[in-house]
Amino acid sequence: MSGKNDGRESWGSNFGFLMAAIGSAVGLGNLWGFPYKMGANGGFAFFILYLVLVVFAGYILVMTELALGRATGKSIIPAYRSATDGKGTFIGIFSTVAPFLILGFYCYLGGYALKYAIANLGDIFHASWGVGGADGADFFTALFTNRGESRVYTILFILVTVLIVSRGVSSGIEKFNKIAMPGLFILLVIVVIRSCTLPGAGAGIAFMFKPDWSAFAGKGIISVLASAGGQMFFSISIGMGIMVTYGSYMKKDDDIAKSGLIIPLADTVIAILAGLAIMPAVFAFGMEPSAGPGLLFMTLQNVFNSMGAAGPVFGTLFYILVCIAALTSSMSLLEAIIASFVDKALDKGQGNKRKMYCWIAGVLTMITGASVAMDGLGTYLPPMFGRFCWLDGYDLLAEGILMPIAALLTVLYFGWIKKDFLQAEIKTSSTFKTEKFYTFCLKFVAPIFCFFVLLGQIDSFFGLGWF
Ligand code: PFF
Questions:
Q1: Mean of per-residue pLDDT scores for the chain
Q2: How many CB atoms lie within 10 A of CB 307?
Q3: Are 238 and 62 in contact (CB under 8 A)?
Q4: CB–CB of 123/311 below 8 Å?
């Protein structure tokens, strides 16, 4: 490694690294996926299952990816190439294509969050560019059917992402996350307090936490497992080379075993807080909970509309929070896409080409993001693969196929073929008391889990109705 990678960047501090990794994990998945899935799939019972998955699989996968990055000191494609003697380079390629497919639609959604933050701010000043009390569904429909405006916000969000990431690992990504993540946490706590103290909030808390063990009965357990597994995969950003890339910027004395636990646990705590911010308010105003864009951009806007004078203030705070969550995730997606190219140029002695690759990837993402905007959530373009709106098409290809395959092959390879490679790396900076547990889960539990997630995703991709 020495010599070749001179000039390669690294994190300024362990805190900065943790904020960046948690920032990648905490995103739209926490806000609109977790609370609803938890409520709809057994409440507290789902949560217990999710925690078990976090410990037996999330922890293992995050540690695996971080250790692979740090052991090789390289980003995704070269990391896989060097650790598998070239045989597994394609896994690195999968893990680079997947974030690229996701980044476009992620910025499209981030752009909507930006639009909502601005519109709610406008309402504080009774400006003409505010929501003006319009029904959430009408406001959202007007936005996504306005393809010009949708493209503008998507491109704006991509530009912000590019501008931050192009500044570098420590002075761009880390610096932003170190301020934004504590800020996000404070905003979230403010919204949680408001939401949980509304009259009638108890019904929302009951929706999320009431244990319903019958969700696990018979075939139900498989569908709950697939849903919790898929959610966890996306939520903690695994199978996308992100943790490999972020791990490659870690210092040799940073504790991987500890970080591997902190990242998924922090992600889960924030997902629960997001639920406590959203569901009590939804129920307090007598609305129906849902998942996905409808929850964030229709239902919640109606909640803010119903809050009277305080509505625009909480609306603005909430959508700023959504913007931050989406931005810290989109930054990690862009970093995962470009890092291998930046490394290659460094290795060839061509210097730091970060800015150039950020802009190339940014422009390409503008094309995929614009295609999602042009589709208007399935309103305008012919369905992708004959079945899906373009947003879902990109998502299913990345999250449904590439991510679980990459993760499955990774755990199989390091569990069964290149044994002890990652453990040796983890031990260089940690007492690694959980080594036996890690090795057992890496060999047996994680592959079964990844296989399940893959089956669950194939099932929904082809609409097979297996689960
Ligand atoms: N983890 C992010 C979320 O929960 O929204 C999304 C995400 C970011 C997925 C980065 C995958 C990824 F590599």
A1: 94
A2: 18
A3: yes
A4: yes
